Amino acid sequence: MISIENLSYEVGTARILQDVTVTLPKGGMTALIGPNGAGKSTLLSHVARLLPIQTGKISVDDLEVGNCDSSALARRLAILPQQVHFATRLTVRDMVAFGRYPHSQGRLRSEDHNKVAEALEAFGLTPLQNRFLDTLSGGQRHKAHVAMTYAQDTDYLLLDEPLNNLDISAARALMALLRDLADNSGKTIVIVVHDINFAAQYADHLVVMKQGQIACEGKPVDLVTKALLTDVFDTDAHVALIEGKPFVMP
Amino acid sequence: MNNRAAIAGAAAGTFVLAAVSLFVGVIDLTPLDVLRDPSALTLLIDSRFPRTAAPLIAGASLSICGLILQMLVRNRFVEPMTVGTGQGAALGILLVTVFAPTLSIFLKMVLASSTALLASLGFLLIARRLPPTQPLLVPLVGMVYGGILGAAVTFFAYQADMLQFIETWLSGDFSGVMRGRYELLWIGAMAAGLTYLIADQIAIVGLGRDASINLGLNYNQVMILGLLVISIVSALTVVTVGAIPFVGLIVPNIVSRWFGDNLRATLPVTALAGGALVLLSDILGRVLRYPFEIPVGTILGVLGAFAFLWLLYRGPKHAH
Ligand SMILES: Nc1ncnc2c1ncn2[C@@H]1O[C@H](COP(=O)(O)OP(=O)(O)OP(=O)(O)O)[C@@H](O)[C@H]1O
Ligand SMILES: [Mg+2]
Question: CB of B206 within 8 Å of any CB in chain A?
Fold first, then answer.
């Protein structure tokens, strides 16, 4: 369980997060949605201790973010930021292997090698494993970054817009893989997505943010309505029900 | 070409160069002389071996430092001599020489390393504020920063009437290397060698702050450790043989082009290639205008320009 209590964050006079209190349940998949600039990435960055907590408190199970041992948290929780840019020249395999650092401290044992091979295989990267990242296509490179996060093999996975750059088949495969991790490996997935249909289709729980605050949360079927789209996203779209799940007409 | 082959190739090349270096100099010396003539053996031990070892270990340490700095700053166009570290070291030595000339050599080195560290930290703080979309700003700002520190050093030296020391500190030259006069370089080499133990950490720091924190790394601690090594090596090199330009820039760039930036695999190649390059430059400096010597910095400047052009236009298109 990730519990966030009274989290506020200011840059200069701009209030980017305002008194956010929310609990992300353990297990299953939670999707974080909201318009551009709502504060989704900022919230995830706080949970992953990439930004210092100004006011409020965050804990991941028994670990208090900011006060706990950073390497212990790295074995519990991994984040894939929205923008990843690595300036160094690494092969796909080397980079995915760095995902094992929290467990191996650099000395890869056979279980680490297995996990790396598994991550490469899961994202179809095995044939590309010896290529340098800067020789890959944008989507392939993105898959490699996701594979690195996967290899970190933590209980909690925070993914900020992981569907960027992915074709429809890769996007569906990734969501199915995350679903499988949640259902069969007991992982907790927190994902930021812009495509509400993907969120409604795959997530168990939705958290909606607007202007630095939590607008509402709940099950997709209860939440995704015409009212949500007008109130939060300020757009007038039609919502249909297909096979019992809400579907936003584009 | 894979990594093992590269290490073997670089090691073989270095070995040949070292053998050549032992028998090149103003006094004729052949391997047979060493067996027959005790004074030839003395020449070998007192002069030729130090003259061979110094360029090797200075080149190896500086290449490693260049690579580490490039990882810490996340910019390929920097090396310790272009971001003020060397100038910081020179300032430190100058200050102790003027104000505390009786200090032990060890304490002098500690002080010089400290000023080098402060100078590097200063650069890092400035570099962090530069927009990442403008990678060329970093070396430019570094040169200005190094230039300002260098001017301060020259000003102090002028006041203290010590300008001739500046000359020896800021332009590398191995002609004065003899047994008993270069051993400090070994300490620098050891410091540089120890970074192999934190090769993974430095490679991860090269991925950036967010990636480092996500992997549970103590980002600032690795940063300081890396800077410390760079400062120690720079200070010891500046004092012993003078600043040697370009190695720290060219060698890591070429190695990275071919083998990438997984430091655990590339640090040994980088070290060997750097040692070989500086030794080769020094041998050329000894033979080109025999019996006169051309300073190693001059040779490296020319070699470096060609190497850099080659580096920019060649290099593998693919990783295989
Ligand atoms: N360093 C900063 N300085 C000033 N404002 C910032 C800074 N970082 C973020 N912001 C602002 O905070 C707000 C929230 O940003 P955040 O990146 O969390 O949004 P988001 O919900 O992830 O948006 P998107 O869907 O576009 O990724 C934005 O208005 C942004 O402009
Ligand atoms: Mg975002």
Answer: yes
* Yes or no, beta carbons of B215 and A99 under 8 Å apart: yes
pLDDT for res A111: 93
Q: Which residue has 């570290």 as its token pair?
A: B85
- Rounded to two decimals, what is the model's pTM? 0.91
pLDDT at B316 over 70: no
Residue A88 pLDDT exceeds 90: no
Cβ separation of A98 and B215 shorter than 8 Å?
A: yes
Angle between helix axes B49-73 and B263-287 (nearest 10 degrees) is 140
Least confident of A13-17, B127-131, B281-285: B127-131
In a domain, A157, yes or no: no
Number of domains in chain A: 1
Distance from the B3 Cα atom to the nearest Cα atom in chain A, whole angstroms: 13
The rounded distance, in Å, linking the Cα atoms of B299 and B277 is 10
Q: For chain A, how many helices (H) and strands (E)?
A: 10, 12
The answer to whether A209 touches A179, Cβ cutoff 8 Å, is no
Domains defined along chain B, listed by start: 3-314 (1.10.3470.10)
Which residue, among A88, A105, A148, A153, would best test binding to B if mutated, counting the most B CBs under 10 Å from its CB? A88
Enter the tokens of residue A39: 């504060």
- Say whether pLDDT at B3 is over 80: no
CA A175 – CA A182 distance, rounded (Å): 10
Residue B129 forms contact with A (CB below 8 Å)? no
Amino acid found at B192:
A
> Taking residues B27-50, what's their average pLDDT?
84
Q: ∠ CA B80-A50-B206 to the nearest 5 degrees? A: 25
CB-nearest to A135 from B206, B213, B319 is B319
pLDDT value, residue B1: 52
**Three-state SS for A242?**
strand
Return the number of CB contacts < 8 Å for A and B.
86
pLDDT at residue B318, as a whole number: 46
Q: What is the mean pLDDT of residues A202-228?
A: 92
**Is the predicted ipTM greater than 0.90, yes or no?**
yes
State if residue A38 touches ligand 1 by the CB under 6 angstroms criterion.
yes
Whether residue A29 is contained in a domain is answered as yes
Q: What's the token pair of residue B77?
A: 């166009």
Atom 4 of ligand 1: nearest residue by CA position:
A11
**Which two three-digit tokens encode residue B88?**
């910081």
Chain A residues in contact with B209 (beta carbon < 8 A): 50
- Ligand 2 (ion): which residues have CB within 5 A? A 41, 82
Q: What is the CATH number of the domain that holds A239?
A: 3.40.50.300
